Amino acid sequence: MKFIKPLGKLLLATFLFFSLCLQQVYPQSLESRIDSLLQATFTPKGPGAVFLVAKDGKVIYQKAFGMANLELEVPMTPNNVFEIGSMTKQFTAVAILMLVEQSKLQLDDEITKFIPDYPTQGKNITLHHLLTHTSGIKSFTSMKSIRDIERQDLTPIELIDFFKNEPMDFEPGQEFKYNNSGYVILGYIIEILSGESYADFIEKNIFQKLEMNSSQYASYSEVIKNRAYGYHQKDEFMNKNFVSLSLPYSSGSLMSTATDMLEWNEAIKNNTLLKPESTAKAFENCTLNNGENINYGYGWHISNLNESPSYEHGGSIFGFKSMGVYLPEEDIYVIGLSNCDCNSPTVLTRDIAKLTLQNY
């Protein structure tokens, strides 16, 4: 029965063909589902975004949508540079932990150790309180009088002077209340102990070390290659409002790309900058005085996504919004960067992480 051999070969070839097709369809289906989510939000002629998904440190999805510059009709590319807003807090927190490892400070140090004349109103306010948003210090971004200084270039101590005499919101450690003032004070302490500006410290000790070559402290005057321009939307799109970058400072003035932010996540995961025990502190779910968890560590929210542990943080600054989600057990990282504060990537980034989780 000579036909058996050709039939066997045909069956084998058919099996191999369908196996190959299944391998190819699997990631394509995830890609198409992510595409559908993002194309529903980011139109080709409006402000855009860049989204990146990585599994085990390898990029499995990276695309750009919309425009990087509306006036010049420049399309967004995966290499565009965005202001990342409060994701800056991750870098500030890690810088503080680096100084802890250098024995230059301790997390339970009171802030008056570094700023002796800071009016603590009789309270014991520690660096731990600043890192976890539990200090009770008034957040300067919630003060109506911020309008009086928003365009002024202030030194860090001038910015601290702006809010330091405000009444405390609560006793240190009593509540969690998101607070930009605390991270401004941390940035100034980094400057005091390092003898260099916050921007220089982050550049030398983080960006250069990790070869995050497209990341920097933001600047309006400097020509920045691949910069995405920021927008607001009212009845129509508008160029973003001007605010001095000395105000967000160490709480929100860094710029980066999706690719560089993956490098950052990999460095944290692999303990490139910190010892494992120091990294663990950043992701410890801290507690209030009464023992209640606050679901925040040092610069990251501690959350869950489909019952998987998740480390997350977003950023919002005039004209830009950002969001990063890392699932440590599955080693999945998703970052979304948008150049209009009308299009928050927060829900999209979490939804993309859920889709990816379902596929791996």
TrEMBL record:
Residues 46-342 form the Beta-lactamase-related domain. InterPro entries: AmpC-like (IPR050491), Beta-lactam-related (IPR001466), Beta-lactam/transpept-like (IPR012338). It comes from the Bacteria. Transmembrane segments: none annotated. This is CubicO group peptidase, beta-lactamase class C family. It comes from Algoriphagus locisalis.
